[in-house]
Structure formats: structure tokens, C-alpha cells
Amino acid sequence: MSFSKDFLWGGACAANQFEGGWDADGKGASVADLCTNGSHTSPKWVTRTVHPDRLYPSHEAVDFYHHYEEDIALFAEMGFKTFRTSINWTRIFHTGEEAEPNEAGLAFYDRVFDCCKKFGIEPLVTISHYELPFSLVEKYNGWADRRLVGFYLHYCKTIFVRYQDKVKYWLTFNEINAGTMPMGTVLSTGTFQGYEGPITEIPDRPQERFQALHHQFIASALAIAYAHEHYPQFRMGNMNLFATMYPLTCDPDDILACQQQMQMVNWFCSDVQVRGAYPYYASRFFEENNIHIVMEDEDRDILKKGTIDFYTFSYYMSNCVTTHASEQKTAGNLMGGIKNPYLKASDWGWQIDPKGLRYTLNEIYSRYGIPVMVVENGLGAYDEKAADGAIHDDYRIDYLRQHIQQMSEAVKDGVELMGYTPWGCIDLVSASTGEMAKRYGFIYVNKFDDGTGDLSRERKDSFFWYKKVIASNGEDLS
To answer: What is the pTM of this model?
Structure first.
């Protein structure tokens, strides 16, 4: 058997994409709550106030807020060992600045974690998953202002003490390396103060993004050091968007271009969070892009003391890199790339590359030598009900089967793989496009892009398949 007997099989979601209840019981507005719906051909907007003539899909999402018991019971029916979810920061602190937390918000997550424990499911909690309080964008320009470090640390201390006996595994920021890319301006760093319009047209200010990213590094390191000192039972991880890249040709210029992009997109953030210092190659990148990171005297020491215990990442696809401008581009998660002629693609143009996951796992583990976990992976697709009323998502099963097979190969290679939580284990709102039509789940939710739907839940064919996979510890993939 390739997977360990305590392998953490499960699924992953994010509060802002499936929870709903956006203003219930004292919750404040997050960035996601000010994002409209969109599609893969029409970008979503971010607005400064809620416009009554626009649809904001996170406001209801799939209403986990009122369906959590039903949903967690379905996860348990599949045999989940772990459930990766997140806490909505504004459910705990309305604007992000309050001294005292919102008890109703804390109590909600008590109920969620207690329900998980009832079914023997270990929560894996992302502290900040693309839900920065919108008030902090408007007042401080998001993470560009160092004062957010203090707000975040206060938030962390609040949830650590509250859930110290209920949550063991924590991730400080979701896909923190999104801050190295322009799309991270909305999703991650919140550095778009005063802007309203399509998220694709926000002015890109790399100086602000990388300064904001530095503040996130400091916040993460302080939270991890605090947890290590006060809660030794916690295991603290990072979370990286891994955009695997290959040089398109053997042209040395392509090799170097690929290496440089891999460094700044895929390795930069985790080099800081695993090794506790900025990597050597960042200096030239900053110099050539006129980026000057403002650090305080103690920052280097903070980074050294706040390194992670385990490495987690999302993996959906790979791209090619070339210096030859005539090559065809493809779509992707937060960033595009050059089309790989050897790969097929999803309905959204994301290239399907299972062997790339084995390659990526080996690259990560050989670089860092700490436990690794795949906390997002999956196929966004149009799901249609068949004549018999069922959802026969063989395409999703095939995608997941191939990726699990390659994870098994990576374990045989010697990679210390902790677990696997496919993305959107229940249908949810897409972070990149704000649509429901792009479905990932094992569980179908009757909710549509026009806001209609009765929110009823149905098991897809992949639900029963994944149940069998977990029961066999990954041995039965038929």
C-alpha cells in the first residue's frame, strides 16, 4: 500500500465561497462580499458598496451557514478523515479592528468543529482564505499597511484560544503567493483602495503588492511563533498556489525564463516560510522591477522564528513558458501560460496534467524535506442531470483517479505525503470567476448563476466513487 494508514483523505472548501450568511449574526463585509458574479468570458467586478441591481454570489453561496450539519454528515458518509475549511475573519471581527470578538461568529465555528468531531473528522483550518475585511481595504489599502499585522495577530490569538481543543492543523494564508501576481491584488493583498470596476482592470502596483506580501510574511511568522510557544499541539502550515511550469522548448532562453518564473511564482513565498529568510534570487528581481521592501529591524529575526511545520499547496494544472511570442496562450488559475501540445484541457481551458502532480510533489519534497499535503485539486466542469435524474460525472472521476495514481507514485518515490483534500467537495462559488456553473463537488447543490435554486443537495457519481477510494485507502480507484 502506498498511502500511510493515517493518511488524511478529505475535501476542501472556503468560507467565502460556500458559507453564505454574509451579514448574519453580526458578520461584517469581506472583499468577497463586494465581488459580483462573472464568468470565464466576463470578469466579475469589485464594488465599494452593495449595488441592488447586481448579484453578489457569496452573500448566499450554497448556504453552509444553515446546512452545515447536513453537509458534514455527507462528508462523513464519504468517509472523510479531514475537512479543510476556513474561518470568515469578518464573522469574528466585523471590520477587523474591534477589540472584542463577535460571540455569535465564534459560536458558529464551535458548532461546525463539534459536528466534525462527532463524525471523527479532523478540521484543517485556513485562517485567512481570500476574505480580508473590506473595511481594511478602504481604510488602510489592505496589507500595504503594516497595521494589518496587529489586526491579524489579534484575530489569530482569539481563534487559537477558542479552538485550541478542537483544531490541530492550521494554515495561515490561502495561496499566499497570489500576492506575487496582479490578480492577487483583490483576492489576497487587498491593495485596491478606492477602486470599483472589473477585477481584471485594477491598476497593478508591484511595489504595493510585494510590500503587502512582506506584511503577510511577518503576520504569518508571528502567528506561527506564538502558536508554537503557547499551543505545542498545533501543527502550522503554509498554503501555496503551485503553478507548475515547463520550458516549452530546449532553447536556453526558455529554460532560463522558466527557471525565473518558477522561482518568483512558486518558490519565493515558501522559501521565506520554510527557510525563514528571503531567497538570494529575490534581490535581482526586486532591483530590476524597482521594488523596495521596507523592513523593520526585527523582521529578519521574526521570519527565522516563525517557520512552518508542513507544506500545503493547490494543484490544478501546469503551463509552459517560452520567450517565443507567437505561441498560443491558455487559461489558468489566476494566471495564464503557454499551451502544452501534449495535454488536454478542461471546459475552462485549464490543462490537465496528472503526471505534473507527481513531478511537483517530488520537487517540493526534495527542496524542503518536510511533510507535504495536497489541499486543493479538482476539475471544474459543467454538471448536467441525466435522463435518470442522476449526475454522471465520469470526467471528474477520471481526473481525480489519474491524480491519485500519480500521488501514489510520488509516495513510492519517497515523498512524505500527509493527505489529500480535493477542492470544492461540495459545489461552491468560483473564486476566479464568481460563478456556480463551474462545479467541482462530489455533492451537487441546486443553485445557479442567476441566484435561483432551492439549495437541495444530491450525491453525484463521484460521491460514491470517492467513498470507495477512501475506504480502500486509495487502493481501489476503479
So the answer is: 0.97
